[in-house]
Amino acid sequence: MNQALTQVPAVPLHIGGKHHASTSTEWRDVVNPATQEIVARVPFSTPDEVNLAVATAKEAFKTWRNTPLAARMRIMLKYQHLIRENIVALAELITREHGKTLPDAEGEVMRGLEVVEHACSIATLQLGEIAENAANGVDVYNIYQPLGVGAGITAFNFPVMLPCFMFPIAIACGNTFVLKPSEQDPSSTMYLVELMYQAGLPAGVLNVVHGGADVVNMLCDHPDIKAVSFIGSTHVGTHVYRRASESGKRAQSMMGAKNHCVVLADANKEQAINNLIGAAFGAAGQRCMANSVVVLVGEARSWLPEIVARSQALKVGPGSDREADLGPMVSKAAMQRAEKLIQAGVDEGAQLLLDGRGHKVAGYEGGNFMGPTIFSKVEASNSVYTQEIFGPAMCVVETDTLDQAIAFINANPNGNGTSIFTSSGWAGRKFQNEIDVGQVGINVAIPVPVAYFSFTGSRASKLGDLGPNGKQALYFWTQTKTVTARWFAPDDGGSGVNTTISMK
Questions:
Q1: Which pLDDT does position 3 carry in this prediction?
Q2: From 68, 212, 379, 470, which residue has the greatest number of CB atoms within 10 Å?
Q3: Is 348 helix (H, G, I), strand (E, B) or coil?
Q4: 171 and 208 part of one domain
Q5: Model confidence over 106-147: pLDDT tens digits?
Q6: How many Cβ atoms from other residues are within 10 Å of residue 394's Cβ?
Q7: How many domains is the chain partitioned into structurally?
Q8: Co-location of 221 and 122 in the same domain
Q9: Helix (H, G, I), strand (E, B) or coil at 482
C-alpha cells in the first residue's frame, strides 16, 4: 500500500457496540472537496460483515425490545445532551468531507438534534388505545410494538441530519438498527453513532456498515431485516423500495425533487429575494429541498435583475471560511454533471444570465467550486428543468397569474416541496389548497417541517405511505397489535355455544 495512504485514517464499521476493522479489499477515498486532500478511506463491507451486523442487531433485539420506555427515554435525553455538546466537532467533520459552510453544517446538526429531542418523548408517543366494554365485558385495545431489525440508507448531502431522521425514532420504539451512511462523507455519521453509545445504548442495538450497491441490495434482501428507510436519488430510491417490498419488508423512500418558489409582486421584496437566493444556492444547491425553480408572477418579473445581482455577489469559498455563502460541491463528478446540464440548458435555448462554471477560489484552485448560476426563459422541456441539477443553479420561469404558476408546478412529476412569497392571506391559502405538493412553505423558502411533524413529500419524490419524523415515523417503525379481551368470572358458566360472529 502507498505510504501516504497508510497515514490516512480508515473508517471502521461499528458492530456490537464497538469499532470493527473491515477485511474488505475494496476501499474508497474520502476527499475534502475544497482541497482534494484524502482525509479518510472507507471500506465496502463484505457479505460476512453485513451478515454479522444484522445478526448482532437481531440478537440485541431480544432484550432491547423489552427495555422499559423510561429507560429508552433516558438514553435519548443523554444523547441529545451529548450532541448539543459536540455541535462544533460534528460540523467540522461535515464541512471537511461534504464541503458545506460551517454555519450551514452547524444548522444541519441542530435540525438532526430536533429529531432526537422528539425521540425523547417516546414514553408518551408509544401509547396505545383502548375501548372499554366494546361488547359485553369485552375490551379492545391497540399496542404499538417494535418490528425488529431496521435498516437505513442515507445520502451524502446531510450526513448527520438524515441518519437522525431514521435511527433515533426506530431505536426509541424498541427496534435495533443497521445503518449504511454515504461512502462520500461517513465520518460525521460515525461520530454520531459513537455519541449514541456514550449515551448508554446497549451493545448491538445500532450497527454501521459501509458500501455501495451490493451492500444496499443485501440490506433490501436480508430476511432478518423488517423495514428499510432510504433517502437519496430517485433512481436508487425506486430500486430500494421495489426490492425491499418484494422481499416482504416495510419500505419508505424519500427521493429526488424539483422544488418551486412562487413570488408574487405583493411580497416583501427584500425578504423574498434573500430567501429564494439562500434556498437555491445554500450548500451549493445540494439539498433535496433546495428551491431550484423560481416562478415570478406578474410584475415580480421586474425583480429578476436584482436577483441576478445579489446572487452574483455571494461569496464562494471553502466551508471552513465562515464568511463564505456557499462551499464546494461534494465531488468532481458531481460538479462535472452539473456543468454538463448547464451546457445542455444553453444548447436547448434557455438564457444563461449568470454562469458559475469554472469558478476559482484563491488558495483552493483544485476545489470543486461552482458559483451561482441562473437561467431565464426556461421551458418545461429543458434538461435544466426536467432533471435535478443538485448544484448551485436556479431556473427562472415567468407567468402572468398565480393560477398559471400553480398549474405549471402541478404538471411537474415531483412533489417534495414548494413555497410562495406573498403578503396576501387569500393567495397563500389558495396556493396551499390547490398545489399538489406534499410540503408547502408560505413565506418560508425551505419548508422542511419541525421534527414533531412528519416529512411529507409526495408523488415522484416519495414512495411509501409513511414518511420520516412526527407520528408517521412512529407508525412506520412499529406494528399495531389489536387485542380483544374478555375475562370471565370464576362462576360464570356462560350461555351456551355461540355459532354467530357477534360477541355475546
A1: 40
A2: 470
A3: coil
A4: yes
A5: 999 999 999 999 999 999 999 999 999 999 899 999 999 999
A6: 29
A7: 2
A8: yes
A9: strand
CATH number for position 54: 3.40.605.10
In the DSSP assignment, the letter for residue 449 is: P
pLDDT in tens, 77-90: 999 999 999 999 99
Q: Do 387 and 332 belong together in one domain?
A: yes
Predicted structure pTM score:
0.95
Residue whose grid cell is 448531502:
157
Give the integer Cα–Cα distance in Å for 114 and 454: 12
Residue 388 lies in a domain: yes
pLDDT of residue 382: 97
Examine the domain organization and report whether 356 and 336 are in the same domain. yes
Instruction: List active site positions.
Output: 288
For residue 379, the number of C-alpha atoms closer than 13 Å in the C-beta half-sphere is 9
| 8 found inside a domain | no
- Residues contacting residue 108 through CB under 8 Å, at least 6 positions apart: 91, 94, 100, 158, 160, 161
- Do residues 245 and 338 share a domain? no
Residue 408 one-letter amino acid: F
pLDDT (tens digit per residue) in 293-324: 999 999 999 999 999 999 999 999 999 999 99
Work out the burial of residue 321: count CB atoms within 10 Å of its CB; fewer than 13 is exposed, 13-18 middle, 19 or more buried: middle
> Who contacts 146 (Cβ-Cβ below 8 Å, separation ≥6)?
61, 65, 173, 174, 175, 477, 478, 479
Question: Alpha-carbon distance 396 to 376, whole Å?
Answer: 5
CATH label of the domain that carries residue 334: 3.40.309.10
Number of other CB atoms surrounding residue 500 within 10 Å: 6
Asked whether residue 380 is assigned to any structural domain, the reply reads: yes
The radius of gyration computed from the CA coordinates of the chain, to the nearest angstrom, equals 25
Helix (H) or strand (E) run with residue 14 in it: strand 13-15
Domain that holds residue 295: 260-442
Q: For residue 19, what is the enclosing H or E element?
A: strand 18-20
Tell me, yes or no, whether 64 and 187 share the same domain. Answer: yes
SS3 of 77, please?
helix
Query: Residues 229, 344: one domain?
Result: no
| CA-based max dimension of the chain | 91
The verdict on 401 and 478 lying in the same domain is no
Q: Is 476 inside any structural domain?
A: yes
